[in-house]
Here is the input.
Amino acid sequence: MQLKQPLFFDTYKENKDADIQALIQGLLCPQATLSPKYFYDEMGSVLFDAITLLPEYYPTRTELEIFTQQANEIHAHFPKSATWVELGAGSCQKAAQLFTHSKPSTYVAVDISVDYLSQHLKDLQAKNSDVNVVGVGMDFSHSLTFPDKLQQQLTLDPLLALYLGSSLGNFNPIEALYFLQRVANLCKMGQPGSGLIIGIDLVKDSSTLERAYADDLGVTAAFNLNVLRRVNSLLGSDFDVRDWQHSARFNVQESRVEMHLQAKKNLSVQWQGQQRHFKQDETIHTENSYKWSVKKFTTLLLQAGFTNTRHWTDQKSHYALFWAN
Ligand code: AVJ
Here is the structure.
């Protein structure tokens, strides 16, 4: 018997030149920045999966706990015979766990790291021959337009958009609003019953938050430092990982955990005939992870064009799953 193979679309590579220019711009800013999307090369994706197993990193585990403990109520909102579009699918583990309760007719996994996605999708397809599995390599942070053929197909079924793991936290509130507007429009394209399920990390005490981003084993530190190797391979730069240290702080004002890489000494980095000096303790800002309150996030969903919202949290109210349509 011929095994069913997942279908793949890769739209990400098309924008590579513009991305490299943006990356260089970020490095040359007074406060140097790097987009968190560069974390996820093969090593970075594996390190992130390791982070989700750390005792200090509660979001992934808490999201699963909410899904498990309130499964019936949550799954009752999912449209039947639907197309699921999972944004930031990664290892596709989160969706695979949901399949034990509800199954889509088509599962579209979208991620920037298409190589990582493809291995896991083949597995998922092999285990779920009753589901049409589709992989899309795409940077959905600025636009949510799918390849034509796929875009058309999305109008035929009810559509369930999934954005799990609190990845929305990487967007600032304005970007989050625009992103959710695009998701709301995507849901409107689908047949009746379409909606969004999204995991959001909630504001809590600073020490719980900072420990989640500066674990005792140093896995998050490795995840953060690995981005320098990624940049070296993209730009041909000469960052020395040993000259940098990991830092994670909760910025209460902005309601976000900030990750930085801090120079241990005065140094300079060169690439393609350009260079940047860093003074000792100067940083590269590598990630923001915004934390929301239930109230503020509900308002944001409504502003984005959704009409109904529901949410579920864990006992400690550390994390929330929202349904919106
Ligand atoms: C994948 C963006 C949800 O912000 O918690 C984990 C990434 N960074 N530890 C997060 C991350 C450091 C993660 N997201």
Notes: The chain has a mean pLDDT of 94. Residues 51, 59, 165-167, 169-170, 213, 220, 287, 289 surround N,N,N-trimethyl-histidine (CB under 6 Å). The longest helix spans residues 173-189. The two ends are 41 Å apart (CA to CA).
